[in-house]
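Lab notebook, entry 651. We have the chain sequence and a SMILES string for adenosine-5'-diphosphate, and the next step in the workflow is to get a structural model of the bound complex before anyone spends time on docking refinements. Request logged below.

Task: model protein plus adenosine-5'-diphosphate, output structure tokens.
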Amino acid sequence: MGILEVSGVNKRFGGLQALGDVNLSIQEQSVHAIIGPNGAGKSTLLNCLVGKLIPDSGSVMFDGQSVLGRKPHEINQMGISRVFQTPEIFGDLTVLENMLIPVFANRDGAFRMHAIESVFSESSVIERAREMLAEVRMSDKVEMLASSLSRGDKRRLEMAMCLVQKPKLLLLDEPTAGMARADTENTIALLNEIRNRRGVTMAIIEHDMNVVFSLADRITVLAQGTPLVEDTPDNIKGHPKVREAYLGEAQV
Amino acid sequence: MLGLKKTDTTLFLVVMGLTLLAPFILNPFPVESGMAQFNAGYPDLMQRFVIFGIFAIGFNILFGLTGYLSFGHAAFLGVGSYAAIWSLKLFALDVVPAIVFAILVAGAFAMLVGFISLRRSGIYFSILTLAFAQMSYALAYSVLTPLTGGETGLQIKNTDSPLLSNVPEGEIGRASFLGLDMGASQELVLGGWAFTFNLGYYIAAVAMLIAFYLSIRIFRSPFGMMLRAVKSNQQRMNYTGLSPKPYTLAAFVISGMYAGLAGGLMVAMDTQVGPERMFWTASGEVVIMTVLGGAGTLLGPVLGAGFIKYFENIISKINKDILHQWFAVLPDGFEDVMVSLVYPFVGKGWHLTLGIMFMLVIIFLPGGLLQGGQKILGLFRRKPQPSAAAEADGTKPAE
Ligand SMILES: Nc1ncnc2c1ncn2[C@@H]1O[C@H](COP(=O)(O)OP(=O)(O)O)[C@@H](O)[C@H]1O
Ligand SMILES: [Mg+2]
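Result returned:
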């Protein structure tokens, strides 16, 4: 049993079958990549895992519990954190405040009204946030407004915000999409570092197979809403079905 | 001190000093001087400054922090007023229970309105709150007449005999605080100057200081930070395991309670209330106060409230005769030209001046008058970066 078990998931948008009978199992401590050409249904699948979309049929079990019908914040509280295609951070808040919020969310749950005590009297929360910022080498930027960070730092901050929650599963939707080569390499390096240091279970959605090649333990290839093959990166690379799926795409 | 950081303590003490010394500060001109009409240190106006200050401070907790623009906050002011007058009529002539009751009833009503309106955001939220307020106004005028007195509103009558107060037969009860009449005033004459110390004002002033202090605590709390997070990125909040709705609802109810406090105090000062207190223009006024002063800042709303009430009560009193006096030194023809140039902007034209000022602030000072003040201070301190001045308030202006 994997930490995440997707079985028989279907999702239609009108006449379009975006996901057709998807089965997927992600093992704890592994990095699992889901790749496929544009429109394959990767984002749709991810949205079904985090409560943004509800599949028409099938089941999604996380850590022994169904996630279906739960709201995104409830699913996060179960232990799934998500990194977005374009970094979603609190632009009007400082870097440190951005980091404090997930720590509070972990400690206090979905809602708690600490309306009178000062943020700065919460020394253990602050300490934890600062530690995490140090780990991603952003200690010199704590007082900066998050919206003024560079794109790469925003991504770094968002990942740190997810990691500080100690998620059981970290989902990443095309973390390098639209990035220049150098940024892409930095991001891959950061992910490798996270993986080696913390042993976080990760599911990475990618369009470009080369990005995940060095990172993934297993790769699932999705085409037209259905998984074609699942195997190790080495076996995937030369697989004829994969070539077929990507036919006409330059990335393979 | 007081559980606040140093800059916040300073800010609070300055506001406290200004509020408690307001009878002096607002009456800088001798009674007989030509400038005496600019004195704002009379009880009625001072009470309005602090009461509307409370209203705006509360509004700012919702709008300034979460970005949810309520266009119906006057409904809570009105509901608080009705609750307070009923307490005076039926329960006791003491203002404390009336004010507490006003806060609770307004809070409960805000819970209902907020629960429904917060199902939507942006313009739809604003319209829902506006609809609720206009509905309350219309109902208070018509169907709810037994509760609200309809068009004539409610006053204390000589037939009212509150449970806990002894009103002699046939007399009209007066609102009091621990047995002291709310209207009680002490006059102090110093040379050509006269200063009035009014019990009602000081009760309202203490209420405002408490309200202001609590708002500082809320701004600096984890809850306040979450409210700013709501404004900044609800998507990220959801995916961080936080549910924005209870946060916005709590902010909505708190700001409704502030409005209820303001409404209760209005009744404590002047024991009558009518439905016009809930009209949409009254809801618009608190929006303008907050934005003019600086939404999302601690001091801005109080400043905005003071500014607008000063205009409404002082600038609006300048008439043609007074202008002629001012420009009397000029040659005759020139005097008339000046008077006709200035006249549209004062007296009944005060709305024009305020409107122009509001537009200038929105366009050039998105952080409100407070940001303007800080820019000027910044020039004097030779610290060109605005962020240094912003520390004085400790809070970034909203947008
Ligand atoms: N909300 C939606 N409504 C209608 N069609 C959608 C919606 N979301 C995605 N689709 C369609 O579903 C298919 C899969 O989309 P998506 O999951 O975004 O693919 P990918 O992320 O792999 O590029 C596409 O054909 C897309 O147009
Ligand atoms: Mg996609």
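Notes for the group: The pocket of magnesium ion (ligand 2) is lined by residues A 42-43 (CB under 6 Å). Worth checking against the assay data. Chain A has a mean pLDDT of 90.
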